[in-house]
Backbone:
């Protein structure tokens, strides 16, 4: 019984070898790769969408973009002014430190 | 159990086109063959395989190695797509389902082979779908019984039963080939 089944199995395998090979068309390969590109692009855009939702939940894309542009303008404007004020602040600090480092003009011990 | 596809699947999940291409080159011919044998029609087989690969691309970034071999999972996806397509055409006749592979007039030997192949394909297509799936996986794709059972989501005993019944039916239908 088992031998008959083995015989059948071998015959089946040999018989199915007569089936024609199935051609893989270039169009099918191309189409599968196009679908890969679409999924990858969707995944990239969904990563951006997740980031946008963290920054500004539920807002349309232009709002965080405008906010980013405004903050950039403000940052650049502030950057052009801050060094001048910073320098002034440095001079003041220097003056104060010079004053503190200078020995006092009077000595308390002299009166004792 | 080492899965030779783990790295490629992970890279494809990160958007690596070359990895996706390599994965496709490795599995597409086998998957298309299975789909063609299950559906008996090239266009339908291409649809099934295309859908299956779309599922691969969608799930690649979440693929967890170690649960099952990628190839086993892919076979299962293709099989399920084939079952879906077969259920959508329950009343389609065999003549509609099986397409003639080549219309050009071939030489005698080639014509004989083509006719033989077509005859076997028709006999295969007439089997119930589970028996056909078992026969195709074990005797055409040379999957082991354990792998084939896993693909079909059944026990090895159930698979052996399907194989036995399928072979018996085909033996009767193709008896003239066995005798000759």
Residues:
């Amino acid at each position: 019984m088992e031998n008959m089944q083995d015989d059948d199995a071998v015959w089946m395998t040999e018989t199915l070898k007569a089936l024609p090979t199935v051609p893989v068309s270039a169009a099918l390969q191309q189409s599968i790769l196009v679908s890969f590109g679409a999924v990858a692009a969707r995944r990239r855009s969904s990563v951006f969408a997740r980031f946008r939702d963290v920054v500004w939940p539920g807002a349309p894309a232009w709002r965080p973009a405008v906010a980013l542009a405004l903050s950039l303008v403000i940052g650049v404007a502030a950057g052009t002014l801050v060094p001048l004020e910073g320098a002034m602040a440095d001079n003041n600090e220097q003056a104060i430190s010079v004053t503190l480092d200078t020995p006092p003009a009077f000595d308390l011990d002299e009166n004792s | 159990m080492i899965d030779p596809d783990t790295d490629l699947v992970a890279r494809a999940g990160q958007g690596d086109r070359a990895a996706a291409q390599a994965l496709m080159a490795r599995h597409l011919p086998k998957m298309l063959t299975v789909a063609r044998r299950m559906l008996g029609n090239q266009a339908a087989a291409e649809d099934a395989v295309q859908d299956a690969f779309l599922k691969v691309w969608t799930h690649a970034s979440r693929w967890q190695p170690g649960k099952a071999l990628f190839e086993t999972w892919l076979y299962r996806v293709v099989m399920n797509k084939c079952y879906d397509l077969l259920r959508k055409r329950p009343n389609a006749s065999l003549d509609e389902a099986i397409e003639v592979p080549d219309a050009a007039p071939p030489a005698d030997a080639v014509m004989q082979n083509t006719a033989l192949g077509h005859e076997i394909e028709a006999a295969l297509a007439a089997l119930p779908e589970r028996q056909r799936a078992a026969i195709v996986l074990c005797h055409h794709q040379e999957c082991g019984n354990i792998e084939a059972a896993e693909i079909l989501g059944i026990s090895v005993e159930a698979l052996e039963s399907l194989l036995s019944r399928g072979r018996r039916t085909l033996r009767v239908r193709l008896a003239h080939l066995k005798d000759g």
Summary: The radius of gyration of chain A is 40 Å.
